[in-house]
Amino acid sequence: MNWQEVCDCSELQNLPFKIELNARGQIIMSPVRVFHSLIQGEVEHFLRQLTQTGKVAPECAIETRLGTKVVDVVWMSLERYHQIKHEIAASIAPEICVEVLSPSNTDEEMEEKRTLYFEQGAQEVWLCDEEGRFRFYDSTQELKRSGLLPAFPLQIKI
Prior knowledge:
This protein has helices at residues 3-8, 34-50, 78-84, 107-119; strands at 17-21, 27-31, 55-64, 67-76, 96-100, 124-128, 134-137, 142-143. It is α+β, with helices and mostly antiparallel strands and 158 residues long. It has one domain (32-143): tt1808, chain A (Alpha-Beta Complex), CATH 3.90.1570.10. The protein is globular, with a radius of gyration of 15 Å. The N and C termini lie far apart (37 Å).
């Protein structure tokens, strides 16, 4: 299955799951908890407050060498927005990709996603745990805070 087929499949619409594809085109579904959605909303809110330009979006599909991955929240420059806005899945990653962790996420899975997003052009990947604490990464290392948006809080309280 490819991402266009997933998007067009009526049976997959309105499911309470985050859907991604693996490298073999198989569907991976992860349940989403209310708390996860609340954190996503707060991340979007702070990103909009702290950026003067660009676009913030939830649930952004990115085409990677290991299938289509869906980032919880992204920020992209207007230049990148104009490059990908009409694509089914982004051929290049937004500059900031934020994953809100679920209990089922493993360190290995998150390391793989970070690698894939950087390969697709992300400049930073942020991970937010269930306590609302952030870890920030560029392509070479973990950062003390975001280099692109240093005013972004280290923790969001819900």
